[in-house]
Amino acid sequence: MPEPVKGLRERKRLETHRALATTAVRLVAERGLDHVTVEDISAAAGVSPRTFFNYFASKEDAVVIAHADTAERTQRTIDRFLATPKEVSTPRAFVDAMKEDFAQVDENREEWLGRMKAIQENATLHSRAVAMNHDTIAPLIEAIARRTGVDPKAELYPTLLLSTLGGAVNAVLMLWYQHDGRVSALDLLDDAVETLLAGLPEPGGRAR
């Protein structure tokens, strides 16, 4: 599903958010979280601290929130997921729907390496990144339940699938980071999903 056309004001809002986010990631990766201030980020991005606070509540948020339109991106993922033919398995359909956004990891390698470095080195950033995803959980579970025709309050599958695939994404990002982004995050994600769908066999085909 194509991204909706945005007006000039909305494009400017998204561009300013991106400029602040990428600047925050770069400065924190270079200096460390404790040695970067909101004023530093604002000055480097060419805006005032007042403008910064129109977009972020804190410097931590500027590091972990890559895009201003997270809710809209989640909805587009859901729309792609629900539009996938029923012949495609639900886990594969879900991952395929994620790929458009997940591709940004490969496309913006330095930014994501910096973000991962900052999160790895600062427990507060890790906690904020987890909290940031909280609002996306319920609509994603509801979408999985809708596609599979089950009641998410009575059946484990929707929540279990989302948790499993979320764990796969985290594992992929960690391995990608350990390889300094020199492997394709999208390829790693495909490998992770195929491994899960195969029943998580041990490497080398060792039997249990």
TrEMBL record:
Domain HTH tetR-type: 14-74
SUPFAM superfamilies: Homeodomain-like
InterPro entries: DNA-bd_HTH_TetR-type_CS, Homeodomain-like_sf, HTH-type_TetR-like_transc_reg, HTH_TetR, MftR_C
Signal peptide limits: none
The keyword Metal-binding is annotated on this UniProt entry: no
DNA-binding region: 37-56
Entries under Pfam families matching the protein: TetR_C_14, TetR_N
Keywords: DNA-binding, Transcription, Transcription regulation
PANTHER family in the cross-refs: HTH-TYPE TRANSCRIPTIONAL REGULATOR RUTR (PTHR30055), MYCOFACTOCIN BIOSYNTHESIS TRANSCRIPTIONAL REGULATOR MFTR-RELATED (PTHR30055:SF238)
Name this protein carries in UniProt: AcrR family transcriptional regulator
